[in-house]
Specification:
- The protein is mainly β and 876 residues long.
- Helices cover 5% and strands 48% of the residues.
- It is built from 8 helices and 39 strands.
- The strands form 7 sheets. The chain has a 22-stranded antiparallel barrel.
- A hairpin with a 3-residue loop joins strand 14 and strand 15 (412-423).
- The mean pLDDT is 91.
Length: 876
């Protein structure tokens, strides 16, 4: 359904409105990291040392020596490579030498003082901005109204070489042909152009925050960001720089790789309303949603002559949807003097959607012609990606429905609906499905004698059944076609379809109460709902040995219940000042009851697959289970089990490592629920202060209580020695510990745990082992000691979401201009700051990857940012 503003028939002549808005977006809440120790790994139990050049002079690590292996031993502590004690860290390891001003040889051959770089987490970030212009013209008379508007929006992002702009045209109007026949027309056209949306999370090609988090030490000075390009336009090789990670050239990628996404969208609707009789109204409507999208990527060549290292891709997509519907409504008030009012409606809808897309690319190896971007510009044999690929999507949905609305004396109300859909995406025996609903309400304040302070009261209850189909082509096994060696190929999908698809059904019961107290100075709205969904279409993982990675399940059963509560009040209301306040609270419980036989889990999101963390629905548990590897716990003490001498020997470790390593579920490949991302409740508080003379102030505070997040940023900082918490033992706050070279220190820790024989661990070990187990991903044959649960954190927060100041300039001043009819000014601050956050190290509490029920994983999220905006609005 399309709705736009319409003109007013009460406007004298043409009404003209203009508004201008400017918004500044400021990154402000960067990760909190230590600034005492620089690059260096967990390579020796002795004091951290600089790498030495051939003459024995201290130098910056080359990215391997002293970061992953000790220069003296060629391995790690106890003669075991660090990556075989824990998972691989990144090049951001900062367990190295103190940044005390020592003069060392830098990666480029220069000599520099080894000093902290406290601002390196802010590199490349900048203040973003957004400007908005809107102009609207409207008018009307007794025969109709019309309103036309245009909006231009320009946005510059918080990272360079990124932004978007949008043009929006709106037309809304109605025409009165006669007293019985009228038409409504709405049309909106959007032209959006996005350039290089900032990459987030675990992208090695363009996620700048991943580089700052995972791949740079605390001594990083931003050399690659400042000197990514040579004078001749080629890419600087940055040979010798230690902060390589999985991609040294992210600064180049951000500045020289370009993706444009152009979207053109047309929404239109025409509606005819006909009053056939004084008891029958008929509505006919036709609407269209037409989208044309284009994506183009040009990654600039990396050499000076425009031939090497570039790539080109382009995709076009057409998405067209049409909807035709009608509704006939019979209505009668006070039927036969019974005080019963009735409305009965019947209608139908015919919906159709068709999509088509085509895309291709030229791989980035060698261009035949310099600087030209097209599919055929490639030397050598034709690559499969140069042959454009195509995809289709077609769907039809027909519906008939009816509504019955009854009321008695304006205090009893009953609504009944019924609908039947026919969907092309379901099997022929299941493509027709019916679902009804019922609701009733009782305005008891109109019937009962209530205490004087009760101004209004209403009870309401409802029961509704909803049904949905699935996406096209999902009910059958479909093949992907391609070519190999010039011959056509077909490949099986990675997921098996469900058998005997049925529509997903949801039944929900809803109960509520509305109360107005003290002449409606206090308004209370409370709601409880409880629903069950069956035949849910979900994807459940399968072992790779099955030949596929998942199976689609059409038998999932869910239970969803919750409570919502809103209270509004007017603590102060005088002629010169008014204070309005509103509080809201919501609790939701969404539990997976069952799946098909033999299945107990559905994965909704993950990072690094089986080497990382999953967000899953687990049978018998709340949606949003965080699945990962955990400690194996002693059943008696519930402490984590340590590896004793026998276990260490079995796993290939020296017995001298007793007290350093745990037994983990990764050793048997078993993921466990280690947390849950679903909050216990969420809510907010709004305050509006209205002053005499058109001045008002609005505030919005919202909050989240309960639920957890797996924070890869926190885990990375802890394992890599970047977090401020890792300073404690290094600065002498640990237990007495003697290093292998005989130095007495206060670097010791005792890891909490118990051995298989019940003995509580009391061995003092190097502080490295307190932090080694955090990590973020696992690879290699011996990485069996990695623990995800260390990265699970409670995610509670309270935030000042918005503060706005508004001023409606008094009419007597505005009209003195002889030009304007009205004028207003607004100042708005959004996402200003967190009043409280349970997350450590300024990790972004709202930086989780995924959407909806798939949230709960955070890694390399952007810093928090706030916006300040000003808007001027005038009418002529």
């Amino acid at each position: 359904m399309i709705t736009t503003k319409k003109g007013s028939k009460h406007t004298q002549g043409l009404g003209i409105e203009y508004s201008y808005g400017y918004k500044s977006v400021q990154p402000f809440r960067y990760l909190k990291e230590q600034n005492e120790y620089g690059t260096g790994g967990m390579v020796s139990l002795n004091s951290p040392q600089f790498q030495k050049d051939g003459s024995g002079n201290p130098m910056l690590t080359d990215g391997w020596t002293q970061s992953f292996v000790d220069q003296t031993t060629g391995t790690g502590p106890y003669g075991v490579d660090t990556w075989n004690q824990v998972s691989w860290p990144g090049n951001g390891v900062s367990w190295g030498h103190k940044m005390d001003g020592t003069m060392i040889k830098w990666w480029d051959g220069s000599t520099r003082a080894y000093v902290p770089q406290p601002n390196n987490l802010k590199l490349l970030y900048q203040n973003g901005s957004q400007t908005t212009h809107n102009v609207a013209v409207s008018g009307g008379n007794e025969w109709g109204t019309i309103r036309v508007s245009y909006t231009r929006l320009d946005n510059a992002a918080i990272l360079p070489n990124s932004g978007f702009n949008q043009n929006t045209f709106n037309l809304g109007g109605d025409i009165k042909v006669s007293n019985r026949l009228s038409f409504k027309i709405n049309a909106s056209y959007f032209d959006r152009d996005y350039h290089n949306a900032p990459m987030l999370g675990n992208s090695d090609t363009g996620s700048w925050q991943k580089r700052l988090l995972y791949n740079i030490g605390r001594d990083y000075s931003g050399d690659d960001a400042l000197h990514y390009k040579n004078a001749d336009g080629s890419r600087n090789s940055l040979s010798g720089i230690p902060w390589v990670g999985n991609n040294l050239y992210q600064a180049w990628n951000i500045m020289e790789d370009n993706t444009w996404q152009i979207s053109r969208k047309l929404l239109t609707s025409v509606q005819a309303n006909y009053q056939a009789t004084n008891f029958l109204d008929v509505m006919f409507r036709a609407s269209m949603d037409n989208n044309n999208n284009e994506a183009e990527t040009i990654n600039n060549t990396t050499d000076a002559v425009g031939l090497v290292g570039g790539s080109y891709s382009r995709g076009l997509a057409r998405d067209y949807a049409s909807n035709f519907d009608f509704l006939a409504t019979f209505h009668k008030d006070n039927i036969k003097s019974s005080n019963i009012n009735a409305r009965f409606s019947v209608g139908g809808t015919s919906f159709q959607r068709s999509m088509y897309s085509m895309s291709g690319s030229t791989p980035g190896t060698q261009y035949a012609l310099p600087y030209l971007n097209y599919f055929g510009n490639y030397t050598g044999a034709v690559q499969a990606s140069q042959i454009p690929s195509e995809s289709w999507y077609d769907k039809k949905l027909n519906s008939v429905y009816g509504f019955l609305n009854l009321s008695y004396k304006n205090y009893l109300f009953l609504d009944v609906t019924a609908r039947n859909d026919w969907s092309s995406t379901l099997p022929s025996g299941e493509w027709s499905y019916f679902f009804p609903s019922y609701s009733a309400s009782f305005l008891f304040s109109e019937l009962l004698h209530l205490p004087e302070f009760v101004s209004f009261g209403k009870l309401r209850m409802a029961w509704a059944e909803g049904a949905t189909d699935t996406d096209p082509y999902r009910i059958n096994t479909t093949y992907s076609v391609g070519s190999f060696g010039g011959q056509p190929t077909s490949s099986l999908p990675g997921s098996l379809p469900a058998q005997h698809y049925k529509p997903a059904i949801n039944n929900t019961a809803d109960f509520g109460i509305n109360l107005g107290l003290f002449k409606n100075r206090i308004i209370i709205d409370a709601r409880y709902y409880n629903g069950k969904s069956i035949n849910q279409i979900l994807s459940s993982p399968l072992p790779n040995s099955s030949g596929v990675n998942s199976v689609v399940v059409n038998a999932g059963a869910l239970q969803n219940s919750g409570l919502e509560f809103i209270i509004k009040g007017k603590p102060v209301e005088t002629t010169g000042f008014k204070w309005d306040i509103a509080l809201n609270f919501a609790h939701n419980s969404n539990k997976l009851l069952s799946l098909s036989s033999g299945l107990d889990r559905v994965d909704m999101n993950n990072i690094w697959g089986n080497n990382g963390v999953f967000i899953s629905a687990v049978v018998g548990k709340q949606f949003g289970s965080i699945m990962g590897y955990d400690y194996i716990y002693d059943p008696k003490t519930h402490l984590p089990l340590m590896q004793d001498e026998a276990t260490l020997t079995k796993n290939g470790y020296p017995i001298a490592m007793k007290g350093t390593l745990y037994q983990t579920t990764q050793q048997n490949g078993e993921m466990k629920p280690i947390g849950n991302a679903t909050p216990k409740f969420i809510g907010g508080m709004t305050n509006t202060f209205t002053f005499k003379g058109g001045f008002s102030i609005n505030t919005l505070i919202d909050y989240r209580v309960g639920g957890q997040m797996w924070s890869g940023s926190y885990a990375t900082m802890m394992q890599q020695g970047q977090a401020t918490q890792t300073l404690r033992e290094r600065d002498g706050g640990g237990l007495p510990f003697t290093t292998p070279d005989g130095t007495a220190t206060k670097w010791g820790v005792v890891l909490p745990g118990v051995y298989p024989d019940g003995t509580v661990n009391s061995t003092v070990v190097h502080y490295y082992y307190k932090y080694m187990g955090y990590g973020v991903w696992s690879s290699g044959p011996d990485n069996q000691n990695w623990i995800h649960s260390t990265g699970v954190r409670d995610d509670n927060w309270v935030k000042l979401r918005e503060l706005s100041v508004n001023y409606l300039i008094p009419e007597r001043y505005v009209k003195r201009s002889k030009v304007f009819q009205s004028a207003s000014v607004s100042l708005v601050g959004r996402d200003l700051f967190y009043i409280y956050s349970s997350l450590p190290n300024r990790v972004n509490p709202e930086g989780m990857n995924g959407a909806g029920n798939a949230q709960g994983i955070e890694f390399a999220s952007l810093p928090s940012f706030r916006s300040l905006s000003a808007q001027l609005r005038v009418t002529f």
